[in-house]
Amino acid sequence: MPLMSIGLENIVYGLFGMIFGCILVFLNKPLALFALEYQNTLWGFRFDVSKIKSTRIIFIITGTGFIIVGLLSLLHIIQFR
């Protein structure tokens, strides 16, 4: 017998997806700064702060995708597994 039913799994995955997506969308500027600084220190890249605009756009697009998939999972339109 599975630990969680399929309906509960969709709700949990949907909530996690929506929360993660909202974090990416609403906190895109601090996350983009952190990502650029981390890549510069870890990999030795020389990304300038002017590249933050493209990083923020990527975070917003990715976050919106997570929100859409989470919402569709909460509505049981898509099911995982």
Could you describe the 3D structure shown?
This protein is 74% helix and 0% strand. Helix 2 crosses helix 3. It is elongated.
- Going by helix content, strand content and strand pairing, the class is mainly alpha
Overall morphology? elongated
The rounded distance between the terminal residues' Cα atoms is: 16 Å
Count of individual helical segments: 3
Give the overall average pLDDT: 88
Percent strand equals under 5%
Oligomer: single chain
SSE string: HHH
In this structure, how is the largest beta sheet organized? none
Q: Helical proportion?
A: over 70%
- Enumerate the spans where pLDDT stays under 50 for 5 or more consecutive residues: none
Q: Notable features of this structure?
A:
81 residues; mainly alpha; 74% helix; 0% strand
Describe the secondary-structure layout.
Elements (H helix, E strand, L loop, with lengths): L5 H21 L1 H16 L8 H23 L7
Helix pairs in contact: 1-3, 2-3
Quick synopsis:
By secondary structure, the protein is mainly alpha-helical.
